[in-house]
Input
Amino acid sequence: MTRPEGPRPSAEERKESAKPPAPVDHGPMKNPVLLLRRIAVTVVGTVILAVGLVLLAAPGPGILVIVLAVAVFAVEYQWARRRLVAARALARSAAEKTATNRIATATAVLFGLASIGLGGVLIFTDVLPLSGAGTGAGVALGGLTVLVTTLYGLREVRQAERATSAARDQPPAHR
Output
């Protein structure tokens, strides 16, 4: 029998490898309540995700519903928490970029107001194709989301500007 190439393991390394493996923590698998919670979160999150995927093709706020599904999954799963943090960072970045550009801010506000108006028209009339309460509510919700995100970005940019100017106006501390 041939030995593998390379240096021999030290006595400490041999001792470590001889130890039995650490017990695997099955977490919610041992506690039936936690297992049922995990199953419920998975089922609810999957249903919301499926609705979000359908709304990507149909009129409605598909991306918002998908983010909601990830938020539901984040209650139980670490991978979803990481994705939710990334989605929040992207949303915050987009909001700040919009807030720092006046043309982008005006465009976002006009788009949000127009979407809310179109949503109202779709809810209360049957003149346009695909009119109905569901479609109108989805379009109006999308417009409302654009407005809220734009206002949030404006507020964050103004607070950052105030903090910067306040720090600049303070005299340096003496040691």
Notes: Residues 29-167 form one domain. The helical segments are 11-18, 32-57, 62-74, 78-100, 102-124, 133-169. DSSP finds six helices and no strands in the chain. The longest helix spans residues 133-169.
